[in-house]
Each structure stands twice: as structure tokens, then as C-alpha cells.
Amino acid sequence: MGILDRMVKWARIRSPWILHFNTGGCNACDIEVLAVLTPRFDVERFGILLKGSPRHADVLVVTGPVTRQVAKRLKRIYYQMPEPKFVMAVGACAVSGGVFRGAYNVHMGLDQVLPVDVYVPGCPPKPEAIIDGVVKLLKKLEEGG
Amino acid sequence: MSEERMFRIPVGPQHPALKEPINFTFIVDGERVVDVKPRIGYNHRGIEKLMESKTYIQGLYLIERICGICSAAHQGCYAQNIEEAAGIEAPPRGVYLRTLIWELERIHSHLLWVGVAYHEIGFDTLFMYVWRDRERVMDILEMISGNRVNYAMNTIGGVRRDVTPEIVDNALKALDYLEERTKYYKKVTEEDDSILARTVNVGILKTEDAKRLCAVGPTARASGLKVDVRRDDPYGAYDELDFDVVVYDTCDLTARVLVRIDEVLESIKMCRQILQNLPSGPVRVKFKRKVPEGESISKVEAPRGEDLHYVKANGTEKPERYKVRAPTLANIPSVCEMLKGGYIADIPIVFAGIDPCIACTDRMLFIDVNTERKWMWTEEELRMYARKWYKKHLKEVVRERWKC
User: Fold this and answer.
1) Angle at CA B398, nearest 5°, toward B397 and B404?
2) Which of B13, B61, B68 is opposite residue A70, by nearest beta carbon?
3) Which of B73, B286, B352, B398 could share a disulfide with B302, CB 3.0–4.6 Å?
4) Closest Cα of chain A to B339: distance in Å?
5) Could you tell me if B251 and B204 are in contact, meaning their C-beta atoms sit under 8 angstroms apart?
6) Closest chain A residue to B50 measured between Cα atoms?
7) Nearest-Cα residue of chain A relative to residue B128
8) B247, B137 in Cβ contact below 8 A?
């Protein structure tokens, strides 16, 4: 690995910017994702920032069971992100459909629509669990992603 | 000017901070919003249909996940509704604990919203302060129910867990802290110039418009309408509690912030009364899995307004039809009215003003009336635009607003 590659990797691990997208979840995971960014848990100290535009983001954090109407938008957002990109499925719905499994309007989990790197189960997962997921993702980034 | 020549701005359905997907098209003339067209449905999961395939007990956990922020309101409303249809009554201690969870949830929901409102106007320091303090009420909820969000406290016939004296002591201590902090936020909201500049006379919804468009909850109370299910049609333990319905009549965003802050103070008062006067006895009665044929309606004042549930039972273990009217849906026509005539830069905070729970918006399509130029914005970009625009135009806008 050349020195430039090493520098890029070093920078990437220390500032993974995230984009948060709710695909029809109940808001519970969303407020927990937000709680992770606020003072008590504060993942910003690891360089993790919430961004508004997919073009600035390295990690797509998806909550919710992926409704049929939103699936197309979700794919478009994913394609707009620059490489290399990573996807985190947060919450039971995004992992497997959760409590909405069997409803006519949802996909059974995020991995039916996009490739997923990290699954964080829980309904909703506690902020500690989300941080654990982030740490696992950082390890994956370190190993080459 | 004809509408075709106006500028259209679609916003949504992806949003970075809080909310779920919804799309708005704003028709603008220069900096002014002329018309608003909402498009909802990105969040449709088919819950009502799915309810028909679940037993009444399974339904408790599905109905809770209509909305994670007002989960206890939905679940409590469902439990009340099925209890009425099945002809059973929750014991007094169960009812008191249910009411306690409702009020704690209102505190957490309103503080969450107040934080988001400060964020929308670019006051991130206060946003972080409020969210830090909000963790205290999350701690109380976790202590009582075992979970921070989606508490699963209610069951048909009462509640699932009891509280111990230690929990009551700890909760009372945390409530003292919260009261002190909430009073501080009230003072800041009333006195800080940078907050007043963005909220006074912004997003006006007149009393008669609020009545005509059937606004509910804090949105209606900030427009001078004294509507509150807790007072108008008491349920739970509300008829035994001493509280005031908070009403402001300035009809603008300041009123919407202050109504919520005052309601937090009222809720803290109610929580204290409940914790100090808990009746003894069991927390639930047994529910026989089947509900006799019939219909029933139940109403609850959720943090965002009136929440209405309807059930049609057919004598089996599963409902034949279940219908929910959540408060945000009732407030969508009101928010369209508030946005009309305002500046583009005010869209994020005015829209946040109804505390939308459909989750929200991220990209907007704007259409200029004159040039027919079209473009898309994410909510974050819109927020940045709003901050820049206000930096430039603050003085003239505030002068014009405070005149009237």
C-alpha cells in the first residue's frame, strides 16, 4: 500500500460522515440515532458528522422497513453517494422487517434492496448498541472495506 | 401572474435530522411562498390492514410502532379502546401508571421538539443543551418501563409493570432538575433576540383559520383555541389531576414554542401529583382473549394533538377493522396555511412548528414564478439557505414584522 492510500484510509477512519434516511420506520430509531449525536453519547468526538446530502456521505444509516414507495428513492440516494460507501441497517425493521413483517407495502428488510455492511438489531436499538455498530463498521473500514 | 409561470420547489422525501419522508411542492414568487402542495404516503406501511391479521395482544406491539415518539399515546389509546369493547376496566393503580407514562412521554416529546426548533433556526448550542436534559426523562422512562423508546407499558386491562418506592424517589429528583431547566428555556425563548427575530409574527395561523382547518393539539392551542382532550373528554386519571390547559393567542411561532414549554411544566406538575398519590392495589386485570361483537372509539391527547382510534370487533381474537387518525394528519392543512405568504427562509421552522410526526422532508423542488427555473433542495441545504438569507436581511425583516 502506497503512502497516499494509507493517508486516505487514515482520514476515512477518522471522519466517517453519515447520511440518515428513514424508510418508513416509526421514528423511534431515528430519535435514538439523533440521541447518539447529542451530548450524552456524542459520537462527533470520533469525527462522525451527520450530513444532509448523499454526495458528502460515506455511510448510509437506514432505519425503517423500506416501504415500496420509498425503495426507489432509497436506491437513488445510494447511487448518489461516492465510492467507497457503506450501509448500516439500524433497528429490527431495517434488519428483517421487524414488527411490520407481512404487511403488503413493505420489503422484508433493507438487504432486499441494498447491500448491507452492519446490522444493528433492537426495537429501537439503544444508543450504546448503535455506537457498537459504528465501531464494528470502523473496523471493517480499517481492514480495507 | 398565472400559476404556470411561478416557481415550483419540491421538498422531500429524504431528511437528515429527525423525521420521516414526505414531499412538498412550494410555489414561490421571488422570496415569497404563494402555494403549498403536500404529498404524503412515503411512510405508508399498511398497519391497519396488518392489524386485522394480529390478535388483540399482538396488536398492542404493532400499534405502538405507528410512531416511536408518541408510542405510549397510541398504545394506551388502543388498550382503552379494546377495554371498552371487551367491557373490562383497568384498576386505579394501572390507570395512574398509564397516565404517568403519557405525561412523561409528553415531556420527552416536547423537549425533543423544542431542541429541534432551536436547531431549525440555527441555534445549535441550545439544541444540544435541551437534548442533554432530555436524557433525564429518558432515564425515568427506562427505569419504569425497561426501554427508552417504545415502552410497551400498556396492556389490555392495565399496565405490565409496577413501580417501586426507589423508582418514585429517583423520578421525583429528576423531575426537579427538569423543572428548573425548562424554566430556563422558557426565559431564553422569551428574551433572546436571535430567537425572537426568527419566531415573532412568523407562520401566522389565525384563530378562525385554526378552527376552520380543524387544527389539533399545541398547534391549535397556540392559535388561541382551548381544545384539549384531557380537559374536554377526560380519560385515564386526568379528571382527578389538577392542571391548566395552556393557551396562547399570538398565533405565531413564539406561541407554538411557549405552549410546548409551558405544557412540559404542567406535565411535570401532573407527574408529581401521580407519583405522590399512587393508589395501591393490582396494576392489571385479566383479559380473556376474545372481544364480543361491537364497535368502540377512544380518544387520547397525544403530544401532537388528538389521537383517535376506532375498532370493530366480531367476537373472535382478532379485530375485523381497526382505524387510526393520528394528529399530524389533522395539522397538514394548517401548516400549508401557515406557509403561504411567508419567506422561503422560514419554511424549515414553520414546518417544524406543527411538530410533524410523519417524519419529514429533505429535498424540495422550487419553482420560480417568473423564470420557471426548477431546482431541488435537501432540507439541510434549505436550512443553510435560511441562515444565510437571514444574515443578510435580518434588520429589514424584523423591523417590518415587529411593526405589525
Assistant:
1) 100
2) B13
3) B73
4) 22
5) yes
6) A103
7) A38
8) no
Measured in degrees and rounded to the nearest 5, phi and psi for residue B403 equal -65, -40
Task: Give the contacts of A137 (CB within 8 A, at least 6 positions apart).
Answer: A16, A59, A86, A88, A117, A118
Residue A51 exposure: Cα atoms within 13 Å on the Cβ side? 17
Is the CB of A29 less than 8 angstroms away from the CB of B53?
no
CA distance B143 to B170: 9
Between A and B, how many CB-CB pairs are < 8 A? Answer: 131
- Closest-CA residue of B relative to A78 is B14
**What are residue B240's phi and psi, to 5 degrees?**
-100, -5
From the number of C-beta atoms within 10 Å of its C-beta (0-12, 13-18, 19+), residue A52 rates as buried
CATH 1.10.645.10 intervals, chain B: 47-325
**Collapsing DSSP states into helix, strand and coil, what is residue B236?**
coil
Distance from CA of B404 to the nearest CA of A (A): 36
Strands A17-22 and A49-50: parallel
Give the other-Cβ count within 10 Å of B395's Cβ. Answer: 9
Distance from CA of A119 to the nearest CA of B (A): 19
The whole-angstrom distance between B280's CA and the closest CA on chain A is 32
Least Cα separation, residue A145 to chain B (angstroms): 24
How many residues comprise chain B?
A: 404
Which residues of chain B neighbour A43 with C-beta distances below 8 Å? Answer: none
Looking at chain B from residue 345 to 364, which residues have their Cβ under 8 Å from any Cβ of chain A? Answer: 357, 359, 362
Residue A97: closest C-alpha in chain B:
B45
Q: Cβ B45–A105 below 8 Å, yes or no?
A: yes
Q: Which residues on chain A are in Cβ contact (under 8 Å) with B53?
A: 102
- Angle at which helix B124-145 crosses helix B92-120, to 10 degrees, equals 160
A23, B380: Cβ pair inside 8 Å? no
Residues B249, B207: contact at Cβ < 8 Å? Answer: yes
User: Quick check: A75 and A114 in contact, CB under 8 A?
Assistant: yes
Which residues from B are below 8 Å from A103, CB to CB?
45-47, 49-50
Backbone CA torsion sign across B150, B155, B161, B167: positive
Tens digit of each residue's pLDDT, chain B (404 residues): 455 566 666 665 554 334 556 677 778 777 788 887 777 767 777 888 888 888 999 988 888 888 888 888 999 999 999 999 999 999 999 999 999 999 999 999 999 989 888 888 888 899 999 999 999 999 999 999 988 888 888 999 999 999 999 999 999 999 999 999 999 999 999 988 888 888 888 888 888 888 888 888 888 999 998 999 998 889 989 989 999 999 998 888 889 899 999 999 999 999 999 999 999 999 999 988 888 999 999 999 988 888 888 999 998 989 998 888 888 778 888 888 888 888 877 877 887 777 665 532 333 344 444 445 555 556 566 677 777 777 777 777 777 666 65
Q: Do B17 and A20 touch (CB under 8 A)?
A: yes
CATH architecture assignment, domain B47-325: Orthogonal Bundle (1.10)
